[in-house]
Amino acid sequence: MQAKSLLLAGGALLAATTGVQASGFQVGLSGQKNVGMGGTGTGLYLDQAAQFYNPGAFVFVAYNSVQGGLNMAIPRISFRGDGGGPQETLQNKNVFPFNGYAGYSISEKFKVGVGFYTPFGSELHYAQGWTGRYTLTDINLRSVFGQVTASYAITPKLGIGAGLVVLAYGDVDLQRDIPIQGQNGAVAHAALTGKADHKVGYNVGIMYKPSDKFSIGASYRSAIDARISSGDVTVSNVPASVASNFTARNFSATLPLPAVYSLGLGVRPTEQLTLALDANLVDWSTYKSLDFTYTGGVLGGANATSSSSVRNYKAALALRVGGQYKVSDKFMVRAGGFYDFSCVRDGYVTPETPDAARVGLTAGFTYQVSEHFGIDGSFLFEDFAKRSQSQADLLANNTTDRVAGTYKTVISVPGIGVHYKF
What we know:
Layout: H1 3-6, H2 32-36, H3 50-53, H4 55-58, E1 65-71, E2 74-81, E3 87-89, E4 91-92, E5 98-105, E6 110-117, E7 122-125, E8 138-155, E9 158-177, E10 189-195, E11 199-211, E12 214-221, E13 224-236, E14 250-257, E15 260-267, E16 273-282, E17 289-295, E18 306-310, E19 316-326, E20 331-340, E21 358-368, E22 373-384, E23 387-389, H5 391-397, E24 405-421
Antiparallel strand pairs: 1-5, 1-24, 2-3, 2-24, 4-7, 5-6, 6-8, 7-8, 8-9, 9-10, 9-11, 10-13, 11-12, 12-15, 13-14, 14-17, 15-16, 16-19, 17-18, 19-20, 20-21, 21-22, 22-24, 23-24
């Protein structure tokens, strides 16, 4: 047996099986107000979350505040095997991405801030005995990123900014069954667990606003290679007759987290109404394969000290639109939508990332309880296109380390946040 048939990770290192608002395994829930406006934020500034969406716009946020938000991603994913058969529904688990920011103006021209957010993370459990159990049975992923930002207004109309981004914490737990007769009739099982190394990237942006009614912005978030240098390999219920093929105790692997190029417009036709349009290009083209190296022994065969699973992702574009209306001094409402193209080519879909082109609709509100304290609510519904691949597709692409069939995904994400101005 080949190790790659056991340890397909499918973007699983610090990845999001339910890629909310973004292609592949990105999660776009880094600001409650922005979520309500379709995930826009490059060409306008709503609050301190501008640190994430466009550091160049951050300087124009006129007040100091702290804020935090929590979302509950509720995925519903089903699978039907190639050639028919019953529909298999995942034992879906809710995921709770969060975000928090603080911003302080040193002067009218200079503003600094800190933020944290969870751009990658998921928990997913397939039903016992499902068709793809030799590819994946369970996945549990967590990550926390931090950012320190400085933003400067070169003129009252032109702002620039930069943020230092740190992968502060990340871990992964992958499990799958092994396609051999288990010991004493029990299912043979493999598990990979590990913590990610700390990595550093950056986020830069620029904003130009020729008038109070129009603004344009651009930002760039750098790629970061998420690496697990020494994860643990655990196998169970392997019979003694083949135990020599499963002696590895550690693994290392690297997942390239892609660079993101964004361009956005903000339009304010009236004092009450704000409109936004964003385009995001996520450069997944660097993700060609996922490679594992095993130490302390072999995994899956007498000479299996490494494995490789082809990915061949492509760059993916997302188009977003959103609006905000000020009903009163205390109450604002928001709505938006987006279309996100898939970065996963036909015949390359994995159970960990059943990615597909998707349409999203969003809504949100802010209620200013007092001069200093307010509540921000958001809701996102995301509908993925059905994504199918046949066994013939897998054979043609040399991707038989995954399962043939059709995936269908929908995600609902309510969210709540609070902010305090000072």
